[in-house]
Design a protein that fits this description.
Length: about 200
């Protein structure tokens, strides 16, 4: 399947009234496609994907196109968005512990390769903490330094474990038994069939 076809297929899934922050619409993107400006078209389609939710097929087409164009950052983001649609996404304000206080001395990679454990309040049969795994994407930053703070996106490995999580809740990040960071939940969007609580607006 070639790149122009994939980008055209994705474009057909975007409502005509959708627009980016710079008022670019899907009709503008067709102009770029007509002139074989594929990378520009892909970037603009990604921006349109930040608006009202678009279907899984949209992100799958963009991911395939980005893979074929060998645009690693775009490919990682589009595959990540596919994961969000399948498993849900939790946005949170994460603060990592300083290097002097934590086992990790290097930055956390921002593009979805890390899948840390999270203490979200579950208990094991023996009464200890039972952690849940979720992938981590750092918004607007390639990585997060120890002691740093950023808005992050979490994709649960098992969405059903996260149905009780709600905005304002504090959770902790772990890469081993020690606490690697603390996060405050901002929004919870679980897929259909997993009835999590809606984000609070207060």
């Amino acid at each position: 399947m070639n790149v122009p076809y994939l980008l055209e297929a994705a474009s057909l899934l975007v409502p005509e009234e959708n627009a980016t922050e710079n008022d670019v619409t899907v009709s503008d993107i067709w102009d770029y496609l007509a002139h074989d400006e594929w990378e520009i078209a892909l970037g603009l389609l990604e921006e349109l994907g930040d608006g009202p939710p678009l279907p899984l097929a949209f992100w799958e087409s963009l991911a395939d196109a980005a893979d074929q164009l060998r645009l690693e950052r775009s490919a990682a983001w589009c595959h990540w968005r596919c994961s969000e649609i399948r498993n849900g996404v939790i946005r949170a304000d994460l603060t990592l512990r300083p290097a002097a206080e934590a086992r990790r001395k290097t930055p956390v990679p921002g593009h979805g390769v890390l899948r840390p454990m999270w203490d979200i309040g579950h208990l094991s049969p023996t009464g200890g903490a039972a952690v849940s795994i979720a992938g981590l994407w750092v918004e607007d930053m390639p990585f997060l330094e120890p002691g740093g703070r950023a808005t992050v996106r979490l994709v649960p490995l098992t969405p059903s474990q996260w149905t009780h999580v709600e905005a304002g809740q504090r959770i902790t990040m772990h890469e081993d038994r020690s606490v690697a960071g603390t996060a405050v939940i901002l929004e919870v969007h679980l897929p259909d069939g997993h009835h999590g609580r809606s984000p609070r607006t207060d």
